[in-house]
C-alpha cells in the first residue's frame, strides 16, 4: 500500500521537468455482476481491478498514462517518463522545495446498511431470478427477458501538486430488467433499472418483483395500444419519465469542455436568459443515496451543488479543474473518469429540473388534445445545435384534460434550449431516473424532473 510519503515522491518526480500540475489517481474496484438471459444465469462475474493513473499538465499539453497495480518503483518510473516527455531533452531533477500533501477529511459518509461484500452470491442471484421469473410469468407474449444485478465497491485515493490528498470509498448497487413482448409481429419493450449510492438495502427501497411487474405490464400495455398521432401538439412529461430530457437536451451542453471547444449552444451566454422563468436546473453531487452522488469528484474536489440555470438565467457550467482554468473559473466538482485508465472530463452527477408550483393533475387537465409521456426510451442529441430525438416507450393520449388510452410508437423531436424557453407549467413533484452516461467513457448518474408542460413540440407517429 502506498503511503502519503510515497505519493509525494511520485508527484515530485512528475513535476521535475517543469510541469505545472501533476496528479495521481489510485483505484481498487471490487465488482459483482450477475446476468440472466434465455431463462438461465449466463454470467456471474466477481473480481477486483487495481491500478493507477498519472497525469501531468504543462500549458495546453496533457500527458496521461495508467498502470495496473500500485508498485512504487513502477509508478516512479512512469512519472519520470511523463515528465520528461513534456519537455524532451530536459534531465529530470527533483524540485528544490518538495511537495507536501495535506489530507482532506470526507465531506460526508455513505450510511451503508448492508455492504455488498457481506451479501452472499446466492442472495444476489435470487434477485436476478426473481426478476426473470416474475416477467416470464405473464405468458407466451413475453419473448425475451434480460435481468441483471451489479454492485461496485470503489476505493480511491487522489493526490495532486496543489496539495490535495483525499481518500474515498464509493459503494453503488443496481439491478435491471428488460422485457420484450410480441403480438401479431408487434414488438414492445419495458424496462426498469433502479440504483443508488448504497448497499444491498437498495432492495428495501425498490422491490424487484414489483418493478419486474411494472416493466412487463408496460410492454404488454403498449402491444395493444394504437399508433400515436403525429404533428405539433402539447406534451405533458410526467415526473415518472425521470430527467432524460434535462440530461440529454441541455445537460451536456452545459459541460465546460464543450464551452472550451466552442461547440456548446450555451457558449457566451452566462448571465443571459436561456429558459422559461419557471426553469431552474441544478447538478447536485451531494444528494444522499443517488447514483451520481460523490463525496469528492475524481480530481479530489469536494462534491457540491451547482446551480446551472436559475429562474431561466444561465448561472454556471459543470467543470473539471483543467477546463475551469481555461474558462477562468473554479472547478464545480464535476471532473469524472470511468476508471484509473481514463483522464477526468466534465460530467454530470445528479442533474435535476427543480420542482415548481403547479399541481401535476392540473397540468394534465389543462391540455385539450395532447400526449402524456410517462416513460422515455433511447434518443440522440446534437450538443452544438441542441436538437434532440427521443423515443416514448409509454405514452397516453390526453383529450379534454383527461388521460385516455395508451399510444405506441411516439417519437418526440425538438430543440433542448427552445423547449426550456417555452415550458409554461412546472409541477410540485420530482421523479428520478438512474443511468450510466456514455460521454466518451462511462459514469454513473441520476437525472430528475417534475411534471412539466411543453405547449408545443413535434410528435412523430403513424396515426
Description:
By secondary structure, the chain is of the alpha+beta class. The protein folds into 3 domains: 100 residues, PmbA/TldD fold (2-Layer Sandwich), CATH 3.30.2290.10; 89 residues, 2-Layer Sandwich (PmbA/TldD fold); 230 residues, no CATH class. It is 21% helix and 40% strand. It is built from 10 helices and 23 strands. Strands 1, 2, 3, 4, 5, 6, 7 and 8 form an 8-stranded mixed sheet that branches. A 6-stranded mixed sheet has the order 12-11-10-15-22-21, with helices on one face. It has a 5-stranded mixed barrel with strand order 9-16-17-19-23. Strand 16 and strand 17 form a beta hairpin. Helix 1 packs parallel to helix 2. The longest helix is centred in the first third of the chain and has 16 residues. 48% of the residues are buried. The mean pLDDT is 93.
Write the layout of secondary structure elements.
Elements: H1 4-14, E1 21-37, E2 40-58, E3 61-68, H2 72-86, E4 102-103, H3 121-136, E5 142-160, E6 164-183, E7 186-192, E8 195-196, H4 202-205, H5 208-223, E9 231-237, H6 244-251, H7 256-261, E10 281-284, E11 305-310, E12 313-314, H8 321-327, E13 335-336, E14 345-346, E15 350-353, H9 360-365, E16 369-381, E17 387-399, E18 402-407, E19 411-415, H10 416-422, E20 425-426, E21 431-437, E22 443-449, E23 452-460
Parallel strand pairs: 4-6, 9-16, 15-22
Antiparallel strand pairs: 1-2, 1-5, 2-3, 5-6, 6-7, 6-8, 9-23, 10-11, 10-15, 11-12, 13-14, 16-17, 17-18, 17-19, 19-23, 20-23, 21-22
Amino acid at each position: 500500500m502506498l503511503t502519503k510519503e510515497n505519493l509525494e515522491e511520485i508527484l515530485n518526480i512528475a513535476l521535475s521537468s517543469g510541469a505545472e500540475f501533476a496528479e495521481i489517481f489510485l483505484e481498487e474496484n471490487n465488482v459483482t455482476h450477475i446476468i440472466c438471459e434465455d431463462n438461465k444465469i449466463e454470467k456471474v462475474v466477481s473480481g477486483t481491478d487495481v491500478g493507477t493513473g498519472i497525469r501531468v499538465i504543462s500549458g495546453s499539453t496533457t500527458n496521461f498514462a495508467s498502470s495496473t497495480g500500485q508498485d512504487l518503483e513502477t509508478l516512479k518510473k512512469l512519472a519520470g517518463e511523463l515528465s520528461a516527455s513534456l519537455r524532451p531533452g530536459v534531465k529530470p531533477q527533483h524540485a528544490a522545495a518538495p511537495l507536501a500533501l495535506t489530507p482532506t477529511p470526507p465531506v460526508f459518509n455513505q450510511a451503508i446498511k448492508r455492504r455488498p461484500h457481506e451479501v452472499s452470491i446466492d442472495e444476489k442471484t435470487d434477485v436476478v431470478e426473481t426478476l426473470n421469473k416474475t416477467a416470464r410469468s405473464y405468458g407466451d407474449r413475453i419473448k425475451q427477458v434480460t435481468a441483471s444485478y451489479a454492485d461496485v465497491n470503489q476505493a480511491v485515493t487522489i493526490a495532486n501538486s496543489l496539495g490535495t490528498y483525499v481518500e474515498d470509498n464509493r459503494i453503488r448497487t443496481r439491478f435491471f430488467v428488460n422485457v420484450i413482448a410480441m403480438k401479431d409481429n408487434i414488438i414492445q419493450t419495458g424496462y426498469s433499472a433502479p440504483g443508488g449510492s448504497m448497499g444491498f438495502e437498495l432492495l428495501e427501497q425498490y422491490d424487484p418483483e414489483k418493478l419486474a411487474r411494472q416493466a412487463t405490464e408496460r410492454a404488454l400495455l403498449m402491444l395493444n395500444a394504437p399508433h400515436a398521432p403525429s404533428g405539433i401538439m402539447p406534451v405533458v412529461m410526467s415526473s415518472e419519465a425521470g430527467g432524460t430530457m434535462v440530461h440529454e437536451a441541455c445537460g451536456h451542453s452545459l459541460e465546460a469542455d464543450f464551452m472550451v471547444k466552442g461547440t456548446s449552444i450555451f457558449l457566451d451566454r452566462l448571465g443571459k436568459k436561456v429558459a422559461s422563468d419557471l426553469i431552474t436546473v441544478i447538478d447536485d453531487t451531494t444528494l444522499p443515496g443517488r447514483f451520481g452522488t460523490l463525496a469528492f469528484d475524481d480530481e479530489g474536489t469536494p462534491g457540491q451543488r451547482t446551480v446551472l440555470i436559475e429562474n431561466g438565467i444561465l448561472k454556471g457550467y459543470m467543470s473539471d479543474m483543467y477546463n475551469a482554468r481555461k474558462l477562468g473559473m473554479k472547478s464545480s466538482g464535476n471532473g469524472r473518469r470511468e476508471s484509473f485508465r481514463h483522464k477526468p472530463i466534465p460530467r454530470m452527477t445528479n442533474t435535476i429540473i427543480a420542482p415548481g408550483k403547479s399541481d401535476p393533475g392540473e397540468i394534465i387537465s389543462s391540455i385539450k388534445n395532447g400526449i402524456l409521456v410517462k416513460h422515455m426510451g433511447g434518443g440522440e442529441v446534437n450538443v452544438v445545435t441542441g436538437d434532440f430525438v427521443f423515443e416514448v416507450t409509454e405514452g397516453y393520449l390526453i383529450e379534454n384534460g383527461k388521460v385516455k388510452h395508451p399510444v405506441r410508437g411516439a417519437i418526440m423531436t425538438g430543440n433542448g434550449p427552445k423547449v426550456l424557453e417555452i415550458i409554461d407549467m412546472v409541477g410540485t413533484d420530482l421523479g428520478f431516473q438512474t443511468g450510466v452516461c456514455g460521454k466518451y467513457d462511462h459514469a454513473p448518474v441520476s437525472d430528475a424532473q417534475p411534471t412539466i408542460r411543453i405547449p408545443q413540440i413535434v410528435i412523430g407517429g403513424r396515426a
